[in-house]
Amino acid sequence: MNPLVSVLSGFYNPSREHINNFFNSINSCSYNSIEFIIFNDGSDEICTKYIHENIQASNQKIKYIESKMNQGLTKALIICASAARGEFLARLDFDDQMSPGRISAQVDYLQSNQLIDLIGSNFFVLDSTGKTIGQTFLKFKSSQEIARNVMSLKQFFCHSSWMIRSRVYFEVGGYDGFYLKAQDYNLLHRLILHGIDIGCHPDPLVYLTKDLNSVSYDRNNTQLKYCLTSMNCFYKGDFSNQEEVYKRVSHLIYTTGFSKYFDSYKKIVALKYNFSGKNRLIVVTKHLFSDPISIVECFIYKIFRSFFISLISRAQ
Fold first, then answer.
1. In whole angstroms, what is the distance from residue 73 CA to residue 53 CA?
2. Which CATH superfamily is domain 5-210 in?
3. Domain residue spans in the chain?
4. Which of 14, 77, 179, 279 has the least CB density, counted as fewest CB within 10 Å?
5. Which of 116, 79, 122 is nearest to 98 (CA)?
6. How many helices (H) does the chain have, and how many strands (E)?
7. Residues 104, 92: Cα–Cα separation, whole Å
8. Per-residue pLDDT tens over the stretch 56-98
């Protein structure tokens, strides 16, 4: 018998298009020993009603949990994980999708590689209209290489491609409620600290939606602050004083100018994800003439990224 997989998803007022895509995605899943745990994080009445209609029409086993108030994604994931019964926990954000064979492929990988406890995968990139505009070709030679990418804020697999052994998730304490953003980075930091091996499936198994409204593009760099806070705690080997570390990191991000350069970098990344092919080249070229400062600041960020990250994440 196949091991049970629990897929965790939280949502707050997603669009009808994202709801339709999400349910089409999970309904097409070919793996048969699975439960989908969906947390309604205080969505409005219209959205909630539409979600109920889709649950009733679904051919999958769905465990639905509802909150009357918005608590944030981290809390939603903590509640979903506590309700899970699976040997493996998988993630899928509500605006993302997965291939029909994603779960089977990752379960097979973990069963064939008993030393690996968490796996991600390559992924396709969708724009805000659902059009495929890119694909990753991540090739990691080792768990240590993945860890190095995580610690330097370089590209690695997306949150929606995660699958982890439940035992390991609970051994390290699961998601930390302190992290309103970057909860995935923090969990990875603690997994790395515990010596957990991480793998990456070579095939693109999920579809990541990327646009200006994505959590990765929050205007106040909140995700960056939480990420560097977790990194700072990681290097100290101590996560007990996170609130003070967050205040110190937030101050350093602005006093070092890192925030300004990171904002410019995000502008260019946004252009990269929201336009494709020749259109992307044309838009970036126009941006070079209309806003040359942001282009220069983007290059400064890429050149000195390691220095900035090391300075802030290791600050006492």
1. 23
2. Spore Coat Polysaccharide Biosynthesis Protein SpsA; Chain A (3.90.550.10)
3. 5-210, 222-313
4. 279
5. 122
6. 12, 9
7. 15
8. 999 999 999 999 999 999 999 999 999 999 999 999 999 999 9
